[in-house]
Every structure is written in C-alpha cells, then in structure tokens.
Design a protein that fits this description.
It is a single chain. With 168 residues, this protein is mainly α. The protein folds into two domains: 5-106, Alpha-helical ferredoxin (Fumarate Reductase Iron-sulfur Protein, Chain B, domain 2, Orthogonal Bundle); 112-166, no CATH class. The protein has eleven helices and no strands. The protein is globular and about 55 Å long. It starts with a helix and ends in an 8-residue tail after the last helix. The structure holds iron/sulfur cluster (2 copies).
Length: 168
C-alpha cells in the first residue's frame, strides 16, 4: 500500500473547505448513520460499504484501497446526505465521494449500471425513457403531456463537454 500524494492533494483541493478534511478524527458517526453501511454490513459483514474508511483512505492518499475491483467501495453511496448532516466536523463527505466517483469514471472503472444509465440518457435525453404505460397513467391522472426533449441538443452538449467519450 503506497501513498499517492498527488491524489491526496486533488482530494484536498476538491473539497470546498479544504481545511476541514484534515480534521476528520475518525469518530465513525458517518458510518454509524449510513443506511448503506447498515444494509451492506448485513450482507457482506465487515467488507460492507463504509464512508469513514473512504474518508480515511482519501485523506491518507491510499488510492489503491479506493479504486479496486469492488464497486461497492465507492459506488455504494446513494448520496442520501445523512453523513454530511451528522458529521461533527462539518465535512462535506458526499462532495468527496462525488470526486471519487468522477475519478473512477476518468479511469474507465465505473460500474456497468452507470454506463448503461448514461447511455440511456445520451440516447433519449431522459433518465427514464417514456413508456406507453407511464403516459397512459399520466393521462388518467390528468397530468399534462410529457414534453419531448431535444435529443440532438443534449447529445451536442455532452459531446462538447467531453462526456460522450467517457461512455463505454
Ligand atoms: S463523521 Fe466526520 S469526523 Fe467522524 S469519521 Fe465521519 S467524516 Fe470523520
Ligand atoms: S450520502 Fe452516501 S455515505 Fe453518506 S450516509 Fe448516505 S449513502 Fe452513506
């Protein structure tokens, strides 16, 4: 296990209050309140998802312990924001976890479900493509017709910001 100082600096620079991350004292309140930690620990035991470990490893520059074959380590976070609310040091954990997820995509190591969801958005400009059943239901409930998005516009945008290249 080696320390990646460049990665460590990137994490520090990414966090809005860069001083704050230095003050994580590993109290574990984030992990104790994280719903994913609770559920994944039931399934995987001690190898479940753990936000405290991620903060520690990011803080120490232990990149190899974060970007592993186990997608759960960083992609287990559902961004519910509970950890942000309970951290006594006001550390924006989800901000750091977003950075870790972005790094994972940069390295082409994101999980398959993320690529398929991104592709669905690229193809239809919607996270959930329209289906006749959904439209019928909306009509029955008296909701207005769904506005058809401009797929070309979205695709141009995604290409211009370089996101399209990251789709597998
Ligand atoms: S709750 Fe905050 S201070 Fe405590 S371990 Fe988690 S990140 Fe660190
Ligand atoms: S935001 Fe992520 S890490 Fe934080 S409590 Fe929710 S699932 Fe857990």
């Amino acid at each position: 296990m080696s320390i990646d100082f460049e990665f460590r600096k990137l994490v520090m620079d990414f966090h809005q209050g860069s001083d704050l991350i230095k003050y994580c004292y590993q109290c574990s309140r984030c992990a104790d309140n994280c719903p994913v930690t609770k559920v994944s620990a039931d399934f995987y035991g001690t190898t479940g998802y753990n936000p405290r470990n991620n903060i520690l490893n990011a803080l120490l520059g232990y990149k190899d312990l974060i970007f592993t074959e186990d997608e759960l380590i960083i992609w287990g976070c559902t961004v519910c924001d509970t950890c942000d609310e309970v951290c006594p040091q006001d550390i924006e954990l989800t901000e750091i976890f977003t950075f870790l997820k972005n790094q994972s995509i940069e390295q082409g190591k994101g999980p398959e479900f993320i690529y398929s969801q991104a592709k669905a958005i690229f193809d239809s400009a919607k996270a959930i493509p329209s289906q006749p059943a959904i439209e019928r239901r909306r009509e029955q409930m008296g909701l207005p017709a769904i506005v058809i998005p401009d797929v070309n516009e979205l695709q141009t945008l995604l290409k211009n910001i370089g996101a399209a290249k990251k789709l597998k």
